[in-house]
Input
Amino acid sequence: MAKHDPLNDLWQVGWSKPIGYLPLRAIESCGSSATQLSAWAEKNDLKHALVTEDEGHVVSGAVYIWHEGAVQRLLNLNPNILTRSGWPTEADAFVKTVATRTAEGEDIYDLVGAMFDDKRMVQTPRVHRPR
Output
């Protein structure tokens, strides 16, 4: 059986998986670093941010990588969820909010899950997805 690579959560970021993240401890345990992942993201036209433990929810801090166009497309399809939840409508601000705020409410929770391509959120009728 093949060993699961935790870095796959980041390698898969793109149009079908707009956002990925990994705790710094997980990254380091894979023999990588935030600097290496940031360079990889830039090389692949992806955005990235290091969110410290003090800023976000993740012990040890985390690296977030996102596809700006894919995030924005999903945001544009779901403006009512964003308005009701008081979340940003712009991709970079949305990702920063994901990293630093808890998604309270089913609609925004499902939208955040869809951004991470969480398979539990694929069939939810609350989130509009591209066809």
